[in-house]
Every structure is written in structure tokens, then in C-alpha cells.
Design goal:
Structural class: alpha/beta
Number of domains: 3
CATH topology of the largest domain: Glutamine Phosphoribosylpyrophosphate, subunit 1, domain 1
Bound molecules: 2-deoxy-2-amino glucitol-6-phosphate
CATH class of the largest domain: Alpha Beta
CATH superfamily of the largest domain: Aminohydrolase, N-terminal nucleophile (Ntn) domain
Number of helices: 19
């Protein structure tokens, strides 16, 4: 998604803006630009492509400005081009705007503005805002914040906007609707950005803007109002990440670093979850015992990898807590008239806490009376702020677009929720709960063990690097893992990949198997339904048709007929989703390398999808 940065203070704006945009590159983009707060007319430079193109075009003739706004664009309306890059300006070049989101009524705004003599340069929705704001700025006698408030009343859609005007260049005004916006509080300087990574090395003091709030920053002041212009008090928080944490720490890619951070991420997420009386602790839930006992069902809302964590949640929560669980693709949920009421607990799973599909779905569920528990990895992001409760995962900053450590910690979070609900509802004994929790406590070391043996996987992956398609098979908890393995391969290796329930093979997908088709089979382990045997016959079925089979299997499982077996440590079936996923993450990573792809910022993808 688009990256937004604003700076006003005593240092060179260009340096702070470019550095800020560099730290937001992970969000995925296809053009970049800045506007500097120079008097009379703003200095604007913008280029399609990567940030380096913008830096090269800036050259040496950059005015000495101490305020400005910067943007990395992920194209929605209008393809990636210099003209469609942000910032967008009014016709006099005195006002510039940058935007994250979608202005749904931009076309009617544009024709109104053109009928009043405005001429447009680009195909974007954002440029309409620049011309509209320019008119309102005059109407409000140069009060940019009031002009912004009036403009917002005329816009439809989701938008976070920053604006700057050459009449008062040290002032930057922002507004936030849906897409995130945070303030960085400095000494004699202040920042605005889509997320804290943009200014973390200059200040750790931040304020997260709420829905429909308008912020005005100068080098010495920050003020926030509602859309009516009423001042709002705001709460500062300290950013717990340090800028080093967001560095690669010696790894070639953020993704590899984050794969190797998984043991610690799991341990950190488990920390404090077993109380001194050996009971599961989940105080954040804010539900009374009666409310928990009165729950009729749970609905999980999520997208992508987080959705796969939701599928695992279904197995665990239904098995342990005996509550029906529905798992919904957030983007589909609210269009099918779902049955939601006060007896529904919604769990919204999101690493970024900004995924628009998930946010809109949880808003719908709340409007129907549901209680919402967020499972999130990003402090003070929108989804937890709009939920009734939040269970933070502690994976630390996940920079790579492909989610890895966030996924494993989402699994830990939903396991903790399942055990806690079982404990409160009295449907599992304390001993059984503690036994499972102790097994969870061993997962960091087991993931560590797997990571120590990934070397052979590198060679193996390269032998499949020219394949056009890879199939993933799993049963029970292995099925969501198969889906996650396929997603990783799609988004990193740009290969067709599909995950199937093993039992579904004979209902169609087996027709896909031909000589040399790579099939990765994930065996559920020690499962009481003896699913291992069924998976082993699936392996025979695909082998008989020429498939090349890689099996992910626990140490003590005898596997016949596979071309390669990747061993992982034993664990109770439901917890195996954590361990079986790790080799698939490494497989996808190595495949991306073998195919020369951009591992941390795969094409067309964004780390946080803040448009619907
Ligand atoms: C996962 O590798 C993808 N990057 C994507 O599917 C992601 O999981 C999805 O967009 C949800 O993001 P969220 O967890 O931040 O809501």
C-alpha cells in the first residue's frame, strides 16, 4: 500500500522524507515523489519506479526546505507513471496533496472542478482532492486545516491525506479515514507517516490518529481536531521497536531474518500466558465467565495467511473449547448476510492491524452486536483500536511482505484462546490444559531444531525451480498448512501452487498430476483418526501417476514411496501446524531466490492492504 511521510522542523526536509520513504518501501509501491515547503511555489519532484529513480532525478538543485511531504504509490486509479505519482498539486503549484486509499467520488468531483476551470494532469483520484482543497483553502482565508475539514465532508471512500501550502510552508495538515496515520513527536520537529518505521530513528514518541481526525503539525506544535474543528486530547505512546530491529540483522533478506526469529517470536507470545496457579491467562479478553459460557459461536475474520491461522483456530477451539467456529474470508463476510449477534465472539486476525477487508468486516460484525477480539502484531493499529479487546502477538516488526513469524505467533495466539475458553467453560481438565501448554512451550526449541536442518532443503528446492506448478496436500491440521505453503510459493516464486485436502485429490485435482509434477505432502502426526495411513495412500496415488513427492513428516513416521522426506520433531497433532509450516516457508524462500525474485517485496504485493 501507499507510504506517506510528512516532516516539518529544523533539518533538511529532503533527507528526512527520502529516508522515511525508504523505510516504507516494504509496503510495496510503483512510484515515489516529494513536495518541499518552499515559499511562493512548492518544489515537487516525482518519478515512476523505485525510490532511486526519484533520488536520481532530484540531482543537486534541491532547494533548502525544512518541511515537506513524501509518498510511495501503489497504483489504484491510473497506472504507475511520473504523472500519476504523488504529490498532486493545484494549477498554481502552491498546494500539494498525498493520499493513501481510494476516493470513490473522484470522477464527479473532477467534472465539477473542470467545469470551474481546473485543468488536470493525471488519471488519479487524488488529483481531484488537490484542486478541491485549493479552492477551499482560498475560501477559508488560508486556514489549511479548516479547508481540509470541509474537503473531507465532500469526499467518499477511504483516505489518509497530507497537504502543504506554499503560503505557510511549515504547516502540514493530515486527515485519517481508514488508512493509518501516526504522528512522530520530535524536539523542534514533528513527523507524520503511515507507520512508525518512517521516523523511528528520529523519535520513539508517537500518537496514533483516530478515524476522521485532522492533525496539524508545525516544528513546535501538534494539534488534533474532529471534523467539526473541536480540539481533541491525544495520548502519546512509546514505540517499543528500535530501528535496528527493523534492520536485516545480517541476513540477506528480511524474510529469512524473520523465519529465524520465529523461535523467539513464539516464546515472546507465550510469555505470561500460564499464571502462577498454572491456569491460562487471557485478561485482555474482557469477557465475564457468564459471557464466555453464553457464547453460541465464534467467527474468525481474516485474509491471506491470517485466514489460514483462522482455519487452524477452528480445529483447536472446537476440539478444546467445544464452541462452533466459522472461519470467514473478511472480503466475503459482510456480503452474505451472516448470522451475527451478542452471543457471537468475532476474532479478527491481522498482522498489520490495517487490512481494510478485515477492518470493514469487523465493523459490520460490531454493528450486529458481536464482541470483537483482535489478534494483532502491530501496537495501536486500527483493528485493535476498533475491537473490544486485543491479544497482541509479539513477533516484532515483520517487514517482509510474505508473512512468516506473524503466522506462527497467530497460531500460538489462537491456541491460547482455545485453551482459555476451554478452561473458563470447564470442558477440559486443568491437567490436560497444562499438558498442551507445556507442549507449546517446547515449540521454540523444535522450530530451532528444524531451522538447523534446512540446508538440504536449499538444494532440493533448486531442483524444482523450473516447475510451473506445485501441489500441496494435507489432512486435518495439515490442510491449512498446505494452503499456507501454497500461498507462500505463489507470492514469492510467482508459481502456480495449490493446497488441497488429501481426501479431495480423487474428486478432481488428481487429474493435474503428470510426470514430474512436484507434490508436497504434509502428514498429520499421531492423529487418532489414523490419517497418516490415508495420507500415505495419497502419496502412492500421486506417485503412481509420475509425481515427484516431498513429504514433511515427524521423525518416527515410516514413509514409503516419497522422493524426499523432510523430518520435523514430534508434537501433538493440533500443534503440528507450527512445525510443519517452517519447511514450507524455507521452500518458498529458496524458490524465490532460485528464480531471482524480489524476496522482501514481491511484485504486485503490499505488506498491508489498506484498500478493499
Ligand atoms: C501473507 O504472506 C500475505 N502477505 C498476505 O496474505 C497477508 O497475510 C494478508 O494480506 C493479511 O494481512 P494482515 O495479517 O496484515 O491482515
Amino acid at each position: 500500500m501507499c507510504g506517506i511521510v510528512g516532516y516539518t522542523g529544523r533539518h533538511s526536509a529532503t533527507e528526512h522524507l527520502i529516508e522515511g520513504l525508504r523505510r516504507l518501501e516494504y509496503r510495496g509501491y510503483d512510484s515515489a515523489g516529494i513536495a518541499l515547503g518552499t515559499p511562493k511555489k512548492l518544489f515537487v519532484e516525482k518519478r515512476a519506479g523505485k525510490l532511486i529513480n526519484l533520488e536520481n532525478s532530484l540531482g543537486k538543485a534541491i532547494p533548502d526546505a525544512h518541511s515537506g511531504i513524501g509518498h510511495t504509490r501503489w497504483a489504484t486509479h491510473g497506472g504507475p507513471s511520473d504523472k500519476n505519482a504523488h504529490p498532486h498539486c493545484d494549477n498554481e503549484g502552491k498546494l500539494a496533496v498525498i493520499h493513501n486509499g481510494i476516493i470513490e467520488n473522484y470522477a464527479e468531483l473532477r467534472s465539477d472542478l473542470e467545469s470551474r476551470g481546473h485543468t488536470f494532469d493525471s488519471e488519479t483520484d487524488t488529483e481531484s482532492v488537490a484542486h478541491l482543497l485549493s479552492e477551499l483553502h482560498k475560501g477559508h482565508k488560508g486556514d489549511l486545516a479548516s479547508a481540509m475539514r470541509e474537503a473531507v465532508a465532500l469526499l467518499r471512500g477511504s483516505f489518509t491525506l497530507l497537504a502543504i501550502h506554499s503560503d505557510n510552508p511549515e504547516v502540514i495538515v493530515g486527515v485519517r479515514r481508514n488508512s493509518p496515520l501516526v504522528v512522530g513527536l520530535g524536539e523542534g520537529e514533528n513527523f507524520l507517516a503511515s507507520d512508525v518505521s518512517a521516523f523511528i530513528e528520529y523519535t520513539k514518541r508517537a500518537v496514533a490518529l483516530g478515524q476522521d481526525e485532522v492533525v496539524t503539525i508545525t516544528p513546535s506544535s501538534v494539534s488534533i481536531t474532529d471534523l467539526k474543528g473541536r480540539d481533541l486530547a491525544f495520548k502519546e505512546y512509546e514505540i517499543t521497536w528500535d530501528s535496528k530491529a527493523a534492520e536485516k540483522g545480517g541476513f540477506t533478506h528480511f524474510m529469512l531474518k524473520e523465519i529465524f526469529e520465529q523461535p523467539k517470536a513464539i516464546a515472546d507470545t507465550l510469555l505470561g500466558r500460564l499464571g502462577d496457579k498454572n491456569q491460562i491467562v487471557l485478561d485482555e479478553l474482557h469477557l465475564t465467565k457468564e459471557e464466555i459460557k453464553g457464547l453460541a459461536k465464534i467467527v474468525v475474520l481474516a485474509c491471506g495467511t491470517a485466514y489460514h491461522a483462522g482455519l487452524v483456530a477452528k480445529y483447536a477451539i472446537e476440539k478444546w473449547a467445544k464452541i462452533p467456529v466459522e472461519v470467514e474470508l473478511a472480503s466475503e463476510f459482510r456480503y452474505r448476510d451472516p448470522i451475527i449477534d451478542k452471543q457471537t465472539l468475532v476474532i479478527a486476525i491481522s498482522q498489520s492491524g490495517e487490512t481494510m477487508d478485515t477492518l470493514m468486516a469487523l465493523r459490520y460484525a460490531k454493528a450486529q452486536g458481536a464482541r470483537v477480539l483482535a489478534v494483532c502484531n502491530t501496537n495501536s493499529s486500527t483493528i485493535p483500536r476498533e475491537s473490544d479487546a486485543v491479544l497482541y502477538t509479539h513477533a516484532g516488526p515483520e517487514i517482509a511482505v510474505a508473512s512468516t513469524k506473524a503466522f506462527l505467533t497467530q497460531l500460538i495466539a489462537v491456541y491460547v484462546i482455545g485453551l482459555y475458553l476451554a478452561q473458563v467453560r470447564g470442558v477440559m481438565s486443568g491437567d490436560d490444559i497444562r499438558k498442551i501448554f507445556n507442549e507449546m512451550d517446547e515449540l521454540p526449541a523444535k522450530v530451532e531444531q528444524i531451522l538447523e536442518t534446512v540446508e538440504p532443503l536449499r538444494e532440493l528446492t533448486r531442483s524444482f525451480s523450473q516447475s510451473t506448478s506445485v501441489l500441496f496436500l494435507g489432512r486435518h491440521i495439515g490442510f491449512p498448512v498446505a494452503l499456507e505453503g501454497a500461498l507462500k510459493l505463489k507470492e514469492l516464486a510467482y508459481m502456480h501452487a495449490e493446497g488441497f485436502a488429501g481426501g479431495e485429490l480423487k474428486h478432481g485435482p488428481i487429474a493435474l498430476i503428470e510426470e514430474g509434477t512436484p507434490v508436497i505432502a504434509i502428514l498429520p502426526f499421531g492423529h487418532e483418526y489414523s490419517l497418516d495411513e490415508k495420507m500415505l495412500s495419497n502419496i502412492q496415488e500421486v506417485k503412481a501417476r509420475g509425481a515427484k513427492v516431498i513429504v514433511i513428516a515427524q521423525e518416527d513416521i515410516v514413509v514409503q514411496g516419497a522422493d524426499h522426506v523432510i523430518r520435523i520433531p514430534g508434537a501433538p497433532a493440533l500443534l503440528q501446524a507450527v512445525l510443519a509450516t517452517v519447511p514450507l516457508q524455507v521452500f518458498a524462500y529458496e524458490m524465490a531466490i532460485a528464480r531471482g525474485n524480489d524476496v522482501d517485496q514481491p511484485r504486485n504485493l503490499a505488506k498491508s492492504v489498506t484498500v478493499e
